[in-house]
Amino acid sequence: MVLLRARWRRLASNRQHPAVATLPVVALTTGAVYVTGAACILLVVLVDPRTAHRAPLMVIPLTSMLSGLAVLKWGRRFPRWFFHVAVVAGAVLTTAQILLGRGTGVVDATVPVYLFVILDAALFFSVVGVAVHLTHVLLVTTVLLPQVGVSWQTVVTLNGVCIAVGIVVAAVCRAADAAEEDPLTRLMNRRGLDRRLQEALQQARADDSRLFLALLDLDGFKQINDGQGHQRGDELLRMCASRWRSVLPKNAVLGRYGGDEFGLIVLDDTLGGAADLADRLREALAPEVTASAGVAAWRAGDSASMLMSRADVALYDAKAAGRNQTVVHGDPGRAASELEAAIECGELVLHYQPLVRLADRAVVGVEALVRWQHPQRGLVPPGDFVPQAERTGAIRALGAWTLDQACLALAETGNTFATVSVNVSVCELRRAEYVHTVRAALWRHGLQGDRLMIEVTEAVCDDDDPQVAETLHEVRALGVLIAIDDFGSGYSSLRWLDRLPLDVIKIDGTFIEGIKEESLEAPILEAILVMARSLGVRVIAERVETMHQARVLGGLGCELAQGFLFGRPEPLWEPSSVQRPMSWSLAAGL
User: Fold this and answer.
1) What is the rounded CA–CA span in Å between residue 297 and residue 329?
2) 3 state DSSP class of 79
3) Are 117 and 93 within 8 A, CB to CB?
4) Residue 45, SS3?
5) What is the mean pLDDT of the chain?
6) Is the per-residue pLDDT at 444 higher than 80?
7) The CATH number fitting domain 190-330, selected from 3.30.70.270, 3.40.47.10, 1.10.510.10, 3.40.50.720
8) SS3 at position 292
9) CATH number for the segment(s) 347-502+557-579
10) Measuring CA to CA, which residue among 305, 289, 296 is closest to residue 275?
């Protein structure tokens, strides 16, 4: 009895849905249940001789059938909570059909549909969720069915079957979960990872979404296992799993393939984002433990084995290059030459997003954002190639091209804009030659230094290379404005504000998103603005998307803003709102 009670407590405390409950499977099953149950009831309504008024009794099954077809077609796009609502709705519709069909054969045909409700809940919901739905059905059947002429013997049998189905199906699903769990790390095992990878591939093929696979391998694990014993090796694996689980985002799945090799499936991200996640996992380990990682991107036509093979090649390259690093699949030298060839062939383009003065919505500058017009892949966003350019060294050629083209565009537009800003990688700032690159671009296009602004991320605050700060000071000596991008997203920027030659801070967009519609207050933003004024630094608010956000920022004294409210990034030479005078003003609303 004590053992049973302990097992129940463990089950009840598990609020996770079974592994089989992926959205495509839940949608397929729920839609099929709706359609099947509705079709059976509809058939009885049409052929039962005791049914005199058929039209009213056909409304609910027809509605249910159409709903089921809609779930079959679009259900995989619905949020998970929708299917809880669908199960409750199924019980309610079943009950309503029984009440409408009192005295006819429709009641006998509809009562078994309650089993579909329990089956759906037991397959896909947590133990607590199954208990809630089962209790709901038992209460309804116990109270309602005797009132519509169903015998108490039938009610008792139906409730017993519902309870048995709920318990057995829920237990089987959780037993299947256990078969896909690695007992040592409590992560998915090879079987679970293979299944999730197949499901991810099916989804990627269906909606052309992005999918990445990373393989991670602990460096020197065999020596630890052999030298310190298997118990120490197991402790190390458990430690890795615990630390990685704590930093894993919702769009990623982590599991253990076996030994010291782990698999990471990343959905709906960029190649750079997947590689950065692999880096974060490596960095989350204890200081004395290192790991290597190989990352590969899914391509149309890839099978699971092909994707796995490329990730394995990348992992081998990471090991061969000295371990303790992440390698993206593909020859780094070839990737660098491909990007440099793209520059030579004119495949790279700059899109510009306006920088606006909130007081009168005048465009005072633009930010240059690079895109790759790839001949096969179409317009590629920077997140897919800039991180790789940083890893391969191609970032120097890319950065120099971006800087030159941005200065050229500013010179050709004359006095239309006061400044143009470009993003600069920490990798570029580690080289003293970057100062000469900036000086040459300004001289070549006849620009004063204060018409150019370079944006650096908070990563410069964490960089240990003293050359980074020295480069920034020398660039500032040319009159170029220095801005720190995504201010507030890290943890090191405050202590660097008085050490770096900063002119502008760009408030991270997450703070702007936090402005509540019903309030004109934003205490954190107000504190940043007060601090900036005391330091003599100008502030730009990023990702401003609503009029209310603009009003709040203007009321707080923020002078400049950038975001979709004012204009999306687009080529400067095409007709756009960036070139035309603004026909509407925020002044009246501030």
Assistant:
1) 8
2) coil
3) no
4) helix
5) 81
6) yes
7) 3.30.70.270
8) strand
9) 3.20.20.450
10) 296
pLDDT band at 520 (very low <50, low <70, confident <90, very high): low
Q: Which amino acid is at 53?
A: H
**533 pLDDT tier (thresholds 50, 70, 90):** confident
User: Which tokens hold the place of 251?
Assistant: 């769009």
* The two three-digit tokens of residue 49, written as one number: 């001789």
User: E-strand spans in 411-462?
Assistant: 419-423, 452-456
As given in the structure block, the two tokens for residue 95 are 């009950």
Say if residues 469 and 438 touch (Cβ distance below 8 Å). Answer: no
**Cα 320-325-328 angle, rounded to 5 deg:** 80
CB atoms within 10 A of CB 287: 5
Residue scoring higher pLDDT (291 or 390): 291
Strand partners, 294: 215, 327
Q: 353: which residues sit within 8 A by CB, 6+ positions away?
A: 366, 367, 369, 562, 567, 568, 569, 570
Assign residue 65 a region: left if phi > 0, alpha if psi is -120 to 50, beta otherwise?
A: alpha
User: Distance between CA atoms of 438 and 480, rounded to whole angstroms?
Assistant: 9
- Work out the angle at residue 99's Cα, subtended by the Cα atoms of residues 97 and 100, and round it to the nearest 5 degrees: 65
- Give the mean model confidence (pLDDT) for residues 49-73: 81
Average pLDDT over residues 501-519: 82
pLDDT at 51 over 70: no
- Give CA 87 to chain center in angstroms: 28
CA gap 195, 177 in Å, rounded: 12
pLDDT at site 20: 66
Which one of 86-100, 322-336, 433-447, 491-505 scores highest in mean pLDDT?
433-447
Q: Give the tokens for residue 281.
A: 């996992």
| 233 φ, ψ (degrees, to nearest 5) | -60, -40
In the chain, the percentage of residues whose pLDDT exceeds 90 is: 13
With the C-alpha atoms ordered 394, 397, 402, 405, is the resulting torsion angle positive or negative?
A: negative
| Beta-bridge partner residues of 266 | 212, 252
Work out the burial of residue 443: count CB atoms within 10 Å of its CB; fewer than 13 is exposed, 13-18 middle, 19 or more buried.
exposed
The dihedral over CA atoms of 236, 239, 243, 246, expressed in degrees to the nearest 10, equals 140
Tallying the residues shown for the chain, one arrives at: 590
What are the residue ranges spanned by the domains of the chain?
A: 2-179, 190-330, 347-502+557-579
